[in-house]
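Our platform keeps sequence and structure together, in a single record for each protein. Because each token names a local backbone shape, the row as a whole describes the fold. One such record is reproduced below, unchanged from the form in which we store it:
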Amino acid sequence: MDARRRSSGFTLLEALVVLALVAVLAGMAAPAMGRLRQQQRMQAQAEALFSSLMLARSEALRQQQRVTVCARAPDDRCASAGPWTSGWMVFVDTDANGQRESQEQVLQKHEALPAGLTLEGNSLVSRYVSYGLEGRSQTISGAFQAGTLTLCQVDATQAWQLVINALGRPRLEKVASDVCN
């Protein structure tokens, strides 16, 4: 009877050893989980911008009006210069000037990016991406607009690029972080 009682549970020492092993394993997994969370947050922002560009393109086709996506300024107007880190908005650009006027309809707003993320476009897409009546990206002058928006994060090993071709079709791709400054 006494032998059965001894083998029915764990001793305090055994429970402490198991808890110590769990703590060590959790400590080893925490940095990897932090990196994974960081990568997921970055991918979510890249996909949000991709979604905004697709919305602008489809609305330009649907409404048969120019629709623009621009880097946001604090006063809910388009920023006069990049980067896009303070957020962006999609609006119907009735006067085709790449700037949101008070009477122009806002279709979507995106808040500023989380701390540590930067989003910059090359020369043709540094401030805005605009879609004409046929769903093609166009500059204010009417020339085709193609370019690359790059989303970077401090100390990340990878970055995201949103490449807009001459027809205005965006493409999202993961690249090495050496494309970041």
